[in-house]
Amino acid sequence: MLTVGLTGNIGSGKSTVATLFRECGFKVYDADTIIKSFYQERGEVYRKVVSAFGESILKEDGSVDTKKLADEVFAHKEKLRILEEITHTALYSYLQQEERKLSPGDVMVVEASLLVEKGSYRRYHFLVVVYADYATCKERAIRKGFTEEDFERRWRMQMPPEEKLKKAHYIIDNRGDLDSLRRRVRELCDVLSFYAKFSPDPT
């Protein structure tokens, strides 16, 4: 069994890589999706977030307006730290439970934006960084619906991609087309599947 951290800056294409990893049969977990599910459950994470940021982040039906929350925390580093402290504790607990369900030979991939910034990349056997230059990332993010202001604010909150590359075990250059990316990911899938056969089983 092998655990893999997957990261990259906004617009780098890490979610596309995550999808290609799923096609390889890997168990892929998206940190953002998991955290949003905590909000939907309206359990402890929901209560702590509402307590910390107030009911102004809620929609009329009482659900968390994730865009409004993101706009608030990405504008203030201290608020972002508070949100991460609430959500990441629950996230890591959830991922540990999922890891125990894995079988020998499985590859578990966790997709998250701030693995390097927070030092949590050390939790995984391997760190995969998806790379694209600033201009390419910006173009992709705006094409997906981000405003230029949103992109710049989030980009500033993240470590420069060139710094993340220094921590990577594997780098996926995603400045080309989808066919090139798919070929690179499939090659990496073969490598990771090989290592998974010799890594310790979950306990």
Strand content: 5-15%
Low-confidence stretches: none
Q: Biggest sheet, strands in spatial order?
A: 2-3-1-4-5
State the order of secondary-structure elements, H for helix, E for strand.
Answer: EHEHHHHEEHHHEH
Number of helices: 9
Helicity, as a percent range: 40-55%
Question: If you average the pLDDT, what whole number results?
Answer: 93
Highest CATH level, the class: Alpha Beta
Provide a concise account of the structure shown.
With 203 residues, the protein is an alpha/beta fold.
Written account of the structure:
The chain has one domain: Rossmann fold (3-Layer(aba) Sandwich). It is built from nine helices and five strands. With 203 residues, it is of the alpha/beta class. The termini are close together. The chain has a five-stranded parallel beta sheet with strand order 2-3-1-4-5.
